[in-house]
Batch of 3 targets.
Target 1
Amino acid sequence: MSQNLNAGDVCLKVEKFNAWYDQFHALKDINMDIRKNKVTAMIGPSGCGKSTLIRCFNRMNDFIPTFRQTGKILFEGNDLSDRFIDPVEVRIKVGMVFQKQNPFPKSIADNVTYGPKIMGVRQKSRLDAIVEESLRNAALWDEVKDKLKSSALSLSGGQQQRLCIARALAMQPDVLLLDEPCSALDPIATSKIEELIIQLKEKYTILIVTHNMQQAARVSDHTAYLYLGELIEYDETTKIFTAPAQKATEDYITGRMG
Amino acid sequence: MIQGAQPIQKIIAAQKRNEAIFRVVAIAAVAISLATLGALLFDAFSDGLRRLDWQFLTSFPSRKPERAGILAAIAGSFYVVSLTSAISIPLGIGAAVYLEEYAKNNRFNRMIEVNITNLAGVPSIIYGILGLELFVRMMKLDRSLMAGALTLSLLALPTVIISAREAIRTVPSSIRQAAYAVGATRWQTTRDHVLPLAFPGIMTGIILAISRAIGETAPLIMIGALTYVAFLPTGLDSPFTVMPIQIFNWVSRPQKGFFECAAAGIVVLLILTLMLNGLAIILRNYYQRKFSVRSL
Ligand SMILES: Nc1ncnc2c1ncn2[C@@H]1O[C@H](COP(=O)(O)OP(=O)(O)OP(=O)(O)O)[C@@H](O)[C@H]1O
Ligand SMILES: [Mg+2]
């Protein structure tokens, strides 16, 4: 497997990583370096372990009792699964948007400010600024600016998903994990989010799971193809989409499989 | 059409018939329970209303039925129920939060769970025996308000815990994940998201448990609550009586006048219970609306 990616600092280093749900071997011997300030796309057929892997980067699998893992994921030089690493600290630095939109049943503004508030931001003007900036970045501001106090659950599914993106952005994390962020969005909102992703990589390291090949090709610098828990191929996106090294990758991308 | 399917008209007719039957059964069920409640109220009110006046509400018990009153019992019930709530609600919610959000799924915790479920089915007199031994004798609380409230708390706790756990379990885990993902701790997630969403359900359990505690007689008789109390409770260590005990006492007297006192006492007990339930339901509905979909 070729790993001659664009030079650049490594943000997350996955080493000999295996994961299980009970007896089910969900991730098999994954090795990959995720580069800083790049967009890394993860593609692969449904059930291949993309969500499982992305959840390992912010310790969200801690809440699944049957989950077990071996190997390492190094972030800023520390193993994320080390006993003395505080998962709360990891999640502050590594933000996440889930596959299914999950706004809090609170007001739109409260959804965005919840994270900053628990981080101790109290000043009203500062919170208001965070709300506006985050919602603008998530391409939602114009639609909700007159009803920031109404329930987040009154928004449409796609709007809710953008609100969840805004909520993650409000934390200004170092890494942003996006698990199919556009699966509930129309083409206009999708292209807004894609623009945002490209723009955000100046500041953030971004991982995005997507079933949309064009989207992976448009926004990502690197692409990883997973199949049945294995990392089949991981390379620069242009390479993956023009001259993949593996036949399996080519079959998937061209729609002959998966 | 699916091959082998019945004609559509036939299916629809059958469904309509089932629906009609179901409706009749449902209406009958509601009618029967309403009729029972109506009969109960009518019975109590027709005997009790004559005796129910200001004098009755503000007098202590007396040897003469026409001078007897329920004041000491109302005060006693009020204090006992307040104390019971103050003890069992925080303890019960705390236990439920621990079991649902913190406890590992190991054998010890499963054993605790099974035991709590079983405790909810234990007859109340058993709690009275436990209260007598534990609070009255060992902790030397004597026949005090505190002993009564602790005993009733034991009785209320399983119901509060079980219903709070069920309410907590209905909070979708995606909400918890959303909170964790922005760096909330377990406690922050529980306090800011899980408990507010579970609140209406928890409230339902509390209503059930506390209404039961108000009407409970046996365990309090067991720990030796008095039947003749001519003073208001003065503190946690004060002897006391409660409404059901007072009513029971009047019913068991031979004179006709005390029978009327009992009926009037029942009316007071019913009204106070309904008021308390009403208040709790208003609170619950307020919160239900507060977290419902379209309004906030
Ligand atoms: N909580 C869980 N308990 C048991 N097995 C699980 C759990 N979550 C996922 N799995 C299994 O792990 C495998 C990978 O699941 P995962 O959710 O990571 O797939 P995915 O690649 O994200 O799929 P999709 O594209 O459909 O979202 C699947 O076979 C799934 O059945
Ligand atoms: Mg997934």
Target 2
Amino acid sequence: MIRAENLIKSFGEHEVLKGITTEFYKGKTNLIIGRSGAGKTVLLKLLVGLFTPTSGKVWYDDTDFFALSKKEKRNIRMKVGMLFQASALFDSMTVEENVRFPLDMFTNMTSKEKLTRVNDVLHRVSLDEANHRYPSEISGGMQKRVGIARAIVLDPEYLFCDEPNSGLDPKTSIVIDELIRNITVENNITTIINTHDMNSVMEIGDNIILLNQGNIAWHGDNSQVLGSENEFLQNFIFASPFLQRLRNSALKKS
Amino acid sequence: MILNFFHNFGRYLTMLWTAFSKPEKFSMYYKETLRQMNDIGVGSLTIVGLIAIFIGAVTAVQFSYQLDGTLVPRYYIGYIVRDSTIIELAPTITCLVLAGKVGSNIAAEIGGMRQKEHIDAMEIMGVNTAAYLIMPKIVAAVIVIPMLVAIAAFVSVIGGYAAAVIPQLMSEAEYIQGVRSFFQPFNVTMMFVKAIVFAFILTSVPSFQGYYVKGGSIELGQASTNAVVYSDILILLADYVLALLLTQ
Ligand SMILES: Nc1ncnc2c1ncn2[C@@H]1O[C@H](COP(=O)(O)OP(=O)(O)OP(=O)(O)O)[C@@H](O)[C@H]1O
Ligand SMILES: [Mg+2]
């Protein structure tokens, strides 16, 4: 479990997050949703400690993350996997070397064991043939999957995904969502996902917070989305007239 | 401005402090250091050799011009070429050139990794990025650059020979007599001390420039330029300070 306690983050004059308090649960896919520029990436980077909050705390179970020493932070981070919005694959390494990097750095496995592990996770994300290709030689969707493979190769307890399905077609996007969902449930890890994809919200939204203007405008799960009268939520999820008509007819039927 | 200087100097020291902490995995650092030694050392051999030949040749030609018609014996030219390259020209000019070649490369490499979030990705894995990305470069340079400088000094003497003896500014015997006169082993020590200090400067300063780069490709270009300019200035400053300290 990860808990944010009154997180405030400003860049100069610009206050991006104005006091976020919420919990992200273990074994669930926790979603942070909101318009582009709402502060999703900033919140995620605060939670993993890439940004320091202007004020407020982040708890990993019973540990106050920002009170830790650099070394203790690194120990927590070994239990963290993260998929970046732009994948952040090491571009002078092949796919296999990318996924193997955490193993090289932190385990004493033999190269054979490492290769087996790498192939396992690559198989997990349905990338069996890509070992020796470079990130620039594979598609955006494949890069995301390599990013996921690299994030889960050390069996993390916490998984962070920044827009795992932005820029992907709906089918691939669903495949990736299901993948993350399965990993979360099977390994019983705390997963936090940034998204503005409404499919994801409805399919894997076990616990959802909606960010708006630096505050949490709505909080709930996917079963509550359709029926909610929250204006921000409705404007966000059912953004187009078409989707609004769809919602109305769905509500009429039920 | 002064405040800014101390702010950056403080960050530089903090970065170095973090960079020299215990490696997560010795073998990864070892491999990376070897790779850097190859890049910096083998990769710079040609240019260093080329420069060294000309340093020696120019020194020989110019001193024979300057000493022409004086009472100074001509074999002194061999002696002057040897000592001026060992004490000053080989370490300083080689390292100024390497600051341009190796330094700009390091700033661009690390800065690119910062901008493309590679450093963040490594941090999330729990890697001490200041250490993994910077320490192997500094260690490799501090080992390899003194070797390059020694080679440069040696090649310079040969360059001097070619420039002095082939056009018959003096005889081969005179040049060699000069090269073998008044040898002081301490000068070689001085050369190595300078090379080590310069090597440290021309890797740590560009690392700093790259590691804290912000913005986009324009800033990356600036960081790379600053890396070279600051390294060059600091190398010359250190050269002066070392000259004062070591010749007392
Ligand atoms: N490093 C930074 N320095 C200054 N301002 C920043 C920085 N990072 C983010 N911001 C500001 O914070 C706000 C939120 O940005 P953020 O990247 O979190 O949005 P987002 O919700 O992730 O959007 P998107 O869906 O487009 O990725 C933006 O107004 C942005 O300008
Ligand atoms: Mg974002």
Target 3
Amino acid sequence: MHKGVEKSVGVRMIEVRNLSQTFQTAKGPLQVLTDVNLDIPRGDFVAVIGRSGAGKSTFLRTLNGLLIPTAGRVVVNGTDITRLSKRELQKYRRTVGFIFQQFNLVNRLSALDNVLHGRLGYLSAWRGLLGLYTEVDYRIAREQLQRVDLAAKESARVDSLSGGQQQRVAIARAMAQQPTLMLADEPAANLDPVLSEEVMRTLKRFNEQDGVTVVINIHALDLALKYAKRIVAFKRGRVVFDGAPEQLSQDLVDDLYERKEMLV
Amino acid sequence: MSGLLFYVLLGLLLAVLAGVAKGSMRRWVVGAGLALLVVFAAFPFSRARGFLSRDTVDPTLLALVPTFPLLLLVPLSVLVALVLARWGGRAAGLGGVLGGVAAIIAAGWWYAQPAQIVRLHPVEGLIELLIALGVAASIALLSFSRPKQRVPILIGAVVAGVLAFVWFHAPQGGGVYLPKSLGYYKLLFPTPPATQQEIAEAYNRALPELNAIRKELGQDELQPIRSLADLQGALPQQASSQGYRLVQPATTQYGAFAVFFLAGLMLGAGLMQLGSPRLQEPDDFRAGILIALVASFLIPAFDATEFDLNKLVVGWPFLQQFADRAWPPLLADPAAERYPLQEVLSQIAVTVQMALVGTFLAAIFAMPLSFLAARNVTAGTPLMRSVFYATRLFLNVLRGVPTLIIALILVAAVGLGPFAGVMAIAIHSLTELGKLYSEAIENADKGPVEALESTGAAGVNVVRWAILPQVLPLFISYTIYNFEINFRSSLVLGLVGAGGIGYFINEKMASGQYDQMMVGVIAIVVVVNIIDFASSWLRSRLV
Ligand SMILES: Nc1ncnc2c1ncn2[C@@H]1O[C@H](COP(=O)(O)OP(=O)(O)O)[C@@H](O)[C@H]1O
Ligand SMILES: [Mg+2]
């Protein structure tokens, strides 16, 4: 499963070309992404930063096909995922984990059931309907729960868990997919600073141990600088910075968050 | 006359009661005034008879104006009162008093007139015009929600209105379906004395023939008349078919009560306004319109439903007799081998079982159907979309048919007994549950759906694992509630022969065994309360 591990960092995994996204809203068309170009190598840990409304979530959703872009290509491992059929898209998505700010767990089910959902993409439709997971699925699910230190909580209903624990269940669900790419949309924004660090460390560990490529939207600049190998900054739907954390200048940060304009 | 005075007093009383609340009285002046205008133009006041009962015309005050022009005083004085009400303060009060008094005098004067012959003059195209306006207005309403397409919608409304008028007015057009509506509104014109005399003479000439027929039928012989005022009841056929009617001002219709009631209200409110002119408020006209609307719908409704407390007085002896015979309830009479309690218990059980089976069947079928009727689940492809619309249409149309009517049809098809009831309950509940379930599905949290979609799960599995766990407790709660309702409707279903305790009660009522029937009634009260209680307890545990 972990083919990514052997391949060295630097092999192109994601190629984003001339990506644009326009939404039709009640007030007319709204251009959210404009001509985004980006290469993400295998094994990278990318933090996407920018103000709220800059288009980060939209960008991330495009990467796993939750959104179809208005123009441009997203090539992952050589296939343009914007042109996949529904079936192929499902097959692609099971290799991409997605972590949400609101966790998006199924509240009335147990932690284990939620993690098992990560395996649904590998089951036939009818086995999935009946919940007939294989032994392997159970083993993988339990293993991932273990890795996020929640083995003891496997049969607890997730709405009885704390926010940090819930997010770890969500991470375990994503990891149960055995993904080669992990997308996370503000995974720590609903958590306190300690838990945020914990979530970031967990992601970092998966990145380093399993060679999973991680792209994470993040609001907190300090966390981005601390954990990411690379920073991509969005401003009003455009990429305005793409480089190592050390290269990010204070001026650019000010500009990015438009602090000067806000002071006036 | 005393009857009409009663309505004036009723209006005054209402004004006083409204005044106790220390609110603005001006709105009552305005409300009563506007309502009077409606009554003047649209509510029947007197009765005008022809030859047959279907020749009868009940004219409004407006229709009577050509015969009795003084009636114009009613709308004119109301208009003056409304203008004065705009002015406000004491002027508004004065307007109310003047308007109320003028309306009472004018309408009362007409009421005191003798019977007289009038000639009908139908107003052509009036109902057609109203229908056309209705069509145009309902289309024009659309333009509020779509400001961008306002102009084309308004044009469409006008075109549709014109088409509706033309279609309805055309010789073989829509009027065929509503034959009464053409020329429905009739003005009443006075007839010159010469014409009246002619009609009377024609009546006298035809009298021998008529009396011969009456003799055969064993009826009294009719005497010749000197003038039409001597006529009792009906007009001669020929005069009737020529459009003449005998209008009897004192034969009042509900519009007359409305006039005197509203005039009394206006007068009373005016007097109170004079007393406390400062209490008026800026939105009195809006409140007045509301009052007038309520009155305009409520008054005809009371008449149409034959509301008459007097009937209760007339029926009182029966109620007394019923109570005497129903109490004490007869639980069992071993001597006569009658065991009502036992029968009631087994019939109650059948009723509960009908509700159980009906609810169960409905829930089983509603579950898959509700997913097809949920917007969010069927968003995928155009095919799913059309399935969605078809399911919605099916559920909505079927939901309009009450359980009782379905039972009535099924009893005819499958015979008397609980099976018809069960099926009726199942069919109706299917539509109710289908709607409730699908709303629950549409309101389900989208987060888990998105999460499972991004694990690459198949569409059905997203529904199964992201939506179903969320909505299942709601489904169960709705189903229990539905069972509660179904128990009550299965009580009524017995009345159309679909089994259960309702059937028992119907039977005992018809055969006058009220003491046995009472056992059933008590049992129902007890069981309804038990089920209500148990259902709400269960549902409170669920969520
Ligand atoms: N489905 C959509 N339809 C219309 N507008 C959208 C949609 N999704 C996002 N937007 C708009 O696009 C802009 C960028 O949103 P988003 O990508 O969520 O920004 P970020 O994640 O950087 O805060 C926002 O103004 C948002 O309102
Ligand atoms: Mg966002």
